[in-house]
Design brief:
Blueprint: E1 7-11, H1 17-30, E2 36-42, H2 48-69, E3 70-74, H3 81-84
Helix pairs in contact: 1-2
């Protein structure tokens, strides 16, 4: 893996669990690159059930990828596109 640069795939759930789940599954099912990480930048959800589902899926991703392949950022408030790109 030292010969391949690290690639970060950033996903922002943005109050939409179904979209988030599809994006995560697509990355995990279709990425053959040996040196990547999934970064989830999570804004607070308006709906607690959606928030809980996103957090549960993040735990599953962490269990699958571990600390080398997964980073989870919880934003204290809703960071819009330009703001979370600078995290």
């Amino acid at each position: 893996m030292k010969d391949t640069p690290r690639v970060s795939l950033i996903i922002v759930p943005f109050d939409n669990f179904e979209f988030f789940e599809k994006a995560v599954n697509s990355v995990l099912d279709n990425t053959n690159y040996p040196n990547f990480e999934v970064v989830v930048s999570h804004n607070p959800c308006k709906n607690q059930e959606t928030n809980d589902k996103i957090l549960d899926l993040c735990k599953e991703i962490y269990d699958q990828l571990g600390t080398e392949g997964f980073r989870f950022i919880i934003n204290p408030e809703n960071y819009y596109h330009a703001q979370w790109c600078m995290i």
